[in-house]
Amino acid sequence: MALSLSSLGDWLGLLATSSLATELVKGYSATAYAVGGVLFIRLVPALLLGPIAGALADRWDRRRTMVCCDLLRFGLFLSIPIVRSLPWLLVASFLIESASLFWIPAKEASVPNLVPTERLESANQLSLLTTYGSAPFAAALFALLALFNSVLAAAIPFFKTNPNDLALYFDAATFLFSAVTIFGLRQVGGRRGAKVGTPGSPSLLSDIAEGWRFVGRDRLLRGLIIGMVGGFAAAGSVIALGRVFVLELRGGNAGYGVIFGTLFVGLAGGMFLGPRLFTDFSRRRLLGCAIFGAGASLVATALSPNLLIAVGTSLGVGAFAGVAWVVGYTLVGKHVADELRGRTFSFLYTMMRVVLLLVLAAAPVIAGLIGKHRVRWLNVGIRLDGVTLVLLCGGIVAMVVGAASYRQMDDRRGVPLRSDLYSALRGRARSGHALDCPGCFIALEGGDGAGKTTQAERLAIALRAQGYQVVVTREPGATATGLRLRTLLLDPQSAGLGPRAEALLYAADRADHVARVIRPALTHGAIVITDRYVDSSLAYQGAGRLLSVAELERLCAFATENLVPHLTVLLDVRPEVGLRRAESPTPDRLESEPAQFHDRVCRCFRRLAARDPGRYLVMDAALPPAEITALILTRLAPLLPRIEAPTDQRSLAVSE
Fold first, then answer.
1. Within 13 Å, how many C-alpha atoms sit on residue 433's CB side?
2. Residue 381 CA to chain centroid, in angstroms?
3. Which residues contact 33 (CB under 8 A, 6 or more apart)?
4. Which helix (H) or strand (E) holds 442?
5. Which residue range(s) make up the domain with 556?
6. So what's the pLDDT on residue 654?
């Protein structure tokens, strides 16, 4: 409630101050300079206070910090229409931004503590939707004030003929409401760290340096910063030149309000629909793709010949930016510990503001120097004015940065993006990579006698020789509980066990296996190789026992929390050949099944691999074991994490 109402007033204030700046000057270049100057002043505090604000967010009581900042902003916005001068507008903008620098990291660091980890993305969606989803309503209100200016002035002479005053008064009131509301939220933010100056506590400068070192060492955060900072560089060109761009397309205040509102309708839609549409798609990949898409949409906006087309392309800019914003926030919230979260968010915001500062300073100047030009080619008028060219360059920069961020954070190397996207849209990709863990997960699948155990051992030897920590495991029976379940499941004396009971027991073993062996090993950066995983249940209990494969997929997703291998190797073997290889004096329950059962199992394995070729490697199990191992290692190479430091060769402790 506090965020939505406060944000509505804040967007009105942004529109009003930028509009006020254009009214105080005349001329194409001067208008561009004025808007850029106001926004430039609001970004200067990031250079001075950004690192300090982040460190104090990890030390001070976050609720009190937010309340004090809201009260300060209330007074400053209230003063702008009262003083009504350009110098005070610049001073107040500087102070408002200074207060925001302390408010934002305190708020962002508090959100992950209010909800369970699995709900963090939904919480960020709600938080960002209330923040940015109010922009279209603010734009609509501002456009109405602009269109019915004379009517408003006749009804309320206090506001004369300027709609900006009403917007600023309303903005001030919303910050007061926000302060009162947050003051009553007792569950928000106690003190997260030691007081400044407490004996034995690290100094403020040490805290700042620690946060920066953490960001510099962490590969995920580096990719996040590259992507989000580059995206903000493109956004800065839009903010600095959007008003002038609309004028160039022959739109006034109403046109500016429409395109501004459309941009944020797209932003809200991307925040809400993007994560739902790509539920099972890698969040690291999604961030890079979204930034690239926002850049491509901005290029289309810059080349738009009229306001109507520009409105449509700006919707795309907002939608892709909304997806990137939610995903970026969630990755930081999940990845960073609470004691470092305030500094991390502050570092991210500071970097974005510094880049925005440079862009807002440079974009209007460059656009003004280029000036207004238009040429005709094949009887078609082409704009070559400064605003169009700067926006075009901003879009290209965002596309390049999105591609760089994608490469930096890609956790599905070797898996084609197109097939990964296709599988996610069809709901078939389960986000094993969504753990955002440094490890790599490999599953070996196939019928009995395919050679899975042999390949698991050979792969482990080869990967350990490369310096990786490797955990070799199996299903069923990787844990103490799993061993008891394995005895029950494979004992020929359990022949009366029903198919559904069998499927549930395998799911129970897998849930324990993932929770106690696979997930901890992946979190610690190990390469996990499992002999059998989900596909075996789909093939043996699904196709073999004639149960619904779709129902079993849902059961397995529940048991594993949607954890899927980065690579699944199917060792394809004809049933009769595999059973001869696996022949033992006492065949277990599954090996004792008739030939038709094993035929159905093998066909199901092949179908599973065919529907998601990007994640599977199908190998002929009749090949020599050494050749199979070499081919698997070649396919696996792009998926392996980089070794950034010498790796401890000791195996992880696992239950046996």
1. 24
2. 40
3. 25, 364, 365, 368
4. strand 440-445
5. 429-639
6. 39
pLDDT tens-digit series, residues 455-466: 999 999 999 999
* Amino acid present at 560: T
Euclidean distance between CA atoms 22 and 359, whole angstroms: 19
CA atoms lying within 13 Å on the CB side of residue 87: 0
CA angle 276, 279, 281 (to 5 degrees): 135
Q: Looking at the structure, do residues 395 and 539 belong to the same domain, yes or no?
A: no
The number of folded domains in the chain is 2
3-state helix, strand, coil in the chain (%, to 5): 70, 5, 25
Residue 619 lies inside a defined structural domain of this protein:
yes
Same domain, 296 and 387: yes
Distance of CA 341 to the CA centre of its chain: 16
* 115 within domain boundaries: yes
Which residues, 6+ apart, have CB-to-CB distance to 100 below 8 Å? 69, 73
Examine residue 652 and state whether it is found in any structural domain, yes or no.
no
Residue type, 503: A
For Cα atoms 280, 507, 579, give the angle at the middle one, nearest 5 degrees: 105
* Residue 500 sits in the same domain as residue 374: no
| CA distances in angstroms from 219 to 292, 524, 566, 624, 641, listed in the order given | 20, 15, 19, 38, 11
Distance CA 98, CA 329 (A): 22
Q: Can you name the residues that pair with 272 across neighbouring β-strands?
A: none
414 and 282 Cβ atoms separated by less than 8 Å: no
Residue linked to tokens 């309708």: 265
- List of the chain residues with pLDDT < 50: 161, 191-200, 428-435, 644-656
The amino acid at residue 365 is V
List, as one string, the DSSP characters of 372-386. --EEEETTEEEE--H
- pLDDT tens, 476-498? 989 999 889 888 888 777 667 88
Unique residue bearing structure tokens 């040490």? 206
Final residue belonging to a domain, choices 409, 444, 461: 409
Distance CA 313, CA 19 (A): 23
One domain for residues 453 and 520: yes
pLDDT in tens, 211-240: 666 666 666 677 777 777 776 677 667 767
CATH assignment at residue 161: 1.20.1250.20
Within a domain: residue 650?
no
- Going by C-alpha positions, the residue among 310, 330, 320, 291 that lies closest to residue 245 is 310
Same domain for 508 and 366: no
Kindly state the tokens that stand for 191: 């003190």
Residue 306 and residue 446 share a domain? no
* Judgement on whether residues 174 and 71 belong to the same structural domain of the protein: yes
DSSP per-residue string spanning 2-43: HHHHHHHHHHHHHHHHHHHHHHT--SHHHHHHHHHHHHHHHH
